Amino acid sequence: MTTAVPTQVGSISVGARFDSYDLYQLLNPGGSASKIKLDLDPQVNLGFSPPENGQLQWLNPISQSWENVDPNLGTQPEIKLGTDGAGDLRFIPTAEASRLSGGNPLAIANVDDTTSSGKYVALTLNDGAAFSYASGQAIGLNGVNADVGGNLTVQAPVVGAMGVSSSGVSDNAVALADGTSFGGVLGKPSFHGDPVDVFFKSGADLSVLADVKTKLTADASTKFDSPTDYADADAQTRMGVKLPPDASGYVSPVQGGFGVLNMDMIAGGDATVRGTTEIGAKTTSDSTSGRARSSTNIGDIAGVGDTAIDAAANLSLTGIAGANLRTDAHSAMGSAESVTTLDSLRGVFSDATSAASGSAELKNPGLDLLSPAPYQAGGDLSITTGVNLVAHTSASVVGDSQGDAFESPNQFQLGDSATAMADLGHAYGLASNAEGGLLMDAAGRIDLTIASKAVMLTEADAVAGHATAISEILSNNGAVNAVLEAGDSGSIKASSTTLFDTNAQTIVGNSTANGIALDTVAIGASMFDFTGLGGIVDANALTSGNVKAVSTKGAASATINSSTGGIQASTSNADWLDNPFVGKTFEATMEGAERITAITTNQGFALAAAVAGDGAHNGVSAMANQSALGVDGYTFSTSESMHLSSVTNLDSTAHAVFGTTSV
User: Fold this and answer.
1) CA-CA distance, 355 to 194, in Å (whole number)?
2) How many whole angstroms separate alpha carbon 663 and alpha carbon 647?
3) Any idea what the Cα angle at residue 62 is, between residues 470 and 411, rounded to 5°?
4) Model confidence over 403-457: pLDDT tens digits?
5) Cis peptide preceding 50, ω within 30 of 0
6) For the chain, which end, N or C, has fewer CB atoms within 10 Å of the first or last residue's CB respectively?
7) CA pseudo-torsion sign 78, 82, 88, 92
8) Which residues contact 212 (CB under 8 A, 6 or more apart)?
């Protein structure tokens, strides 16, 4: 860490790409050191308060994706700067940071391998002349107990809407819509050993219906016709990410969007519980002369979570999580960037760890504390779950194929660029973070229906500039770490579908398109037991993706990476999940099934094309990496006859074209 009084040796515009070699030359004039490392002391927070309002990123030349630089001390970040390697860097603030940190010093400091240099490059952040901000939450029932001798009916529909807009003429504009939590019924964590329960209890039938719909919008636009000045447009919507500044009376944004969360329920008769969410967000930015950036950031969305239900008779449970996200950015002269992020979508989940109790079991009120199953039915159990995800991310620039006066001189080669990125995290129908942590038990039948669909459209378009389109979803998995035990027979109908279209197109410049869709699995690592035998299982998984990169006068690269499974016992790639196969204490099994059918389809097409690119040799590349597994790793057993069938389809195409006008 720098000990001497630092000296400023240059400045770089925040948000612009800059070459690490140019940064190296600023910090080490004459190139006295072979490489440098960056001092990103987290105590300094890079000038931002709170620190999550800004992030230094570097462009990984292998994956062609922007990756965050780790701000920890020590040897981080391990980025080659200087004579042994150069790459693209950028510093990205949030819309909130664009407002809060205009007067704060932002710096990248130089620390070489042995001594502190005492030099830094200032990061200049432009204040927005027009700034609009709105924060809010909407929750139907919060911490409400109900204990009745007869029937109990609870209805908690929630409809929320938030919108902000800013317009600037000859100056910058910033718009931020900040949602914390939107939900139907919220209790408190009800883990084994927790002395406080929030519950609904009925002596007869119980009905809890919570349907949540919300829409957040943010729009920022600027107009400026000057060839020597700029006006940036920065728009952001976020939900379930953080509390607003100086907030009071807000529910923790960790809850995100939910139908029913953290509740205990008992029914003396039948129980019907439904929690559905439909979170919508639309973010747009438009600049005639400057940078346009749109960012949509969503935390966790769930249908029914961390909830325990005991029904003396039949139990009908519905948990569906939905998100419809639209992010657009356009710049006439400058750069345009659209970013969509989503942490997770979960239909029915159990986050079976509690810092307060140290236990990994949920419990029902009034029952023996050792009761193992949070969902119990004295009769039949019917479960409907899944996710609905639509994410459209687009960025476009006109550009002029050169660095403009309002852009950093160290910006990307052609000055103008369109970048569209979608990072959509994980989607699950049934899920627990612990092996076997979601237990469901019925004295009668268990009928499970899982329907999950994720649709991604990511587009980057430039006339004179670079175009980069990157889309990623790490899992769309029907069931992980669930245990279902039926006293009779039952059925499982599971379908998971992931569709993605990732396109980058430019005339003068390079184009890069990368589409990733992993773990599209109809039935994941779980245990199913049909004690009454005769269970029917149908699993259908489909992944279909198109990735296209087209350039008239530059390099073009298209990459597709996808995996699909019908009934698959492999570990999900979510960091928060326990590995179900560590120590072999949890195995993916099905017992008592009469007929098991799995249909798996993986389709992919990667196209890269350039007409007259500068890099004629290896300047055009198309790569496809795809996997399809019908049934993998499961153990099946029954005392009767069983029919097991698997149909697997794989269609993979990579096409690279150079020197043609027909693509």
Assistant:
1) 10
2) 33
3) 70
4) 555 454 444 344 578 999 999 999 999 998 877 788 899 999 999 999 999 999 9
5) yes
6) N
7) positive
8) 140, 157, 158, 160, 182, 183, 184, 257, 258, 259, 275, 276, 277, 278, 279
